[in-house]
Amino acid sequence: MSQKTPIELYMQGDISKSELLALVIEGAPYNTLGLTEDEYALFQKNGELAIDDIIKARKLKSEIIDKAKVF
Fold first, then answer.
1. For the chain, how many structural domains are there in total?
2. How many Cα neighbours within 13 Å face the side chain of 23?
């Protein structure tokens, strides 16, 4: 069983946004956080607001993949 990344834990509601942001601000490597390099760059540029956009994009991507599987 693979261990969940902090971003996955946040998406599931297992950690708070402030806990996730604390890890990001502490300088944890982006891949350890479960972010892609581009997502991490977006966070560095836009700060806390980027987290919500990253979550929305991941959910949309998942929905598109699920729809493609049915098609």
1. 1
2. 20
Please give the Cα distance from 6 to 14 (Å, whole number): 9
In a domain, residue 1? The reply is: no
In a domain, 27, yes or no: yes
- CA distance linking residue 44 with residue 40, whole number of Å: 6
Distance CA 66, CA 28 (A): 31
10-residue block means of pLDDT along the chain (71 residues)? 86 93 82 90 90 93 90 71
Whole-number pLDDT of residue 6: 92
- Residue 5 DSSP class: P
Task: Give buried/exposed letters for 15-39 (b at 16+ CB in 10 A, else e).
Answer: beeeebbebbeeeeebeebbbeeeb
